[in-house]
Write a structure and sequence with these properties.
single chain, 191 residues, alpha/beta, Trna Endonuclease, Chain: A, domain 1, five-stranded mixed β-sheet, two-stranded parallel ribbon, 9 helices, 7 strands, 54% helix, elongated
Length: 191
C-alpha cells in the first residue's frame, strides 16, 4: 500500500477538518515553540482554504440536474461556446472541427486532445460515437480524447472506453468543467 501524506488525506476531507487541525497544531506549537507557532500551523490553514475553494465550486446534486437540463436546452452555438471557453480557461488552444467524429481539437504542450460533445436529449450515449472518436484519435495522431455527454453513457460505452485513452465526462464532472461560465455569459440559466 502506497504511503499518503497528511496533506493529501486532509484535501479529501471537509474544509473545516483542516482548519481544526490548523487550530490544534497552532495551540500545541504555541505551547512548545511560541515564536514558530504561526508558521507551523500556516500550511494546514492553506490546505483548509484550498479545500474550501474546491468544495464551494462544486454544485449540489439538485443544482447539477438543473444545470445539465439547461445545457441540454441550449443551442449548439451557446453550448459549444461554453465548452470552448472552459478549456481555454485551462490554457488549451481550442480549434473547431469539421469532422463528424469530434467537435474540437485541444492543444497544450504539444499534446492533441480530441473532444466530442453529445448534448442530445437522449438518456444515454452509446458505443457508436465512441468508436468513431477512438478511430479519429489514431487518424489524427492525438494523445487522447474526451467525450462530453449531457446524459449518461451506456454500459457498453463505458466498457469500450475502459483501458483506452478516452475520458467520459458527464454529470457533476461536466458541471464542474463549465463552472460558472454559463452564469456569466447566459444569465437565463439557473444558478
Amino acid at each position: 500500500m502506497a504511503k499518503r501524506s497528511l496533506f493529501s488525506i486532509l484535501s479529501e476531507q471537509p474544509w473545516w477538518v483542516s482548519l481544526l487541525v490548523a487550530a490544534i497544531v497552532f495551540a500545541v506549537a504555541q505551547f512548545l515553540l511560541p515564536q514558530m507557532a504561526l508558521f507551523i500551523a500556516l500550511p494546514f490553514a492553506a490546505v483548509a482554504a484550498y479545500v474550501a475553494h474546491k468544495q464551494l465550486r462544486r454544485s449540489s446534486p439538485v443544482n447539477v440536474d438543473e444545470r445539465l437540463a439547461a445545457l441540454r436546452g441550449m443551442s449548439w452555438e451557446n453550448f459549444g461556446g461554453i465548452i470552448e471557453e472552459a478549456y481555454r480557461r485551462q490554457s488549451y488552444t481550442v480549434e473547431g472541427s469539421q469532422s463528424a467524429a469530434f467537435d474540437f481539437t485541444l492543444r497544450k504542450k504539444d499534446r492533441i486532445t480530441l473532444v466530442q460533445c453529445r448534448r442530445w436529449k437522449v438518456n444515454q450515449v452509446g458505443v457508436g460515437p465512441l468508436r468513431e472518436l477512438y478511430d479519429a484519435v489514431a487518424m489524427h495522431d492525438a494523445f487522447d480524447a474526451v467525450c462530453i455527454g449531457t446524459g449518461a453513457f451506456s454500459d457498453r460505452a463505458r466498457e469500450f472506453a475502459a483501458g483506452k485513452r478516452i475520458t467520459l465526462l458527464n454529470g457533476s464532472a461536466l458541471v464542474e468543467l463549465v463552472g460558472t461560465l454559463e452564469k456569466r455569459k447566459w444569465r437565463w440559466l439557473p444558478l
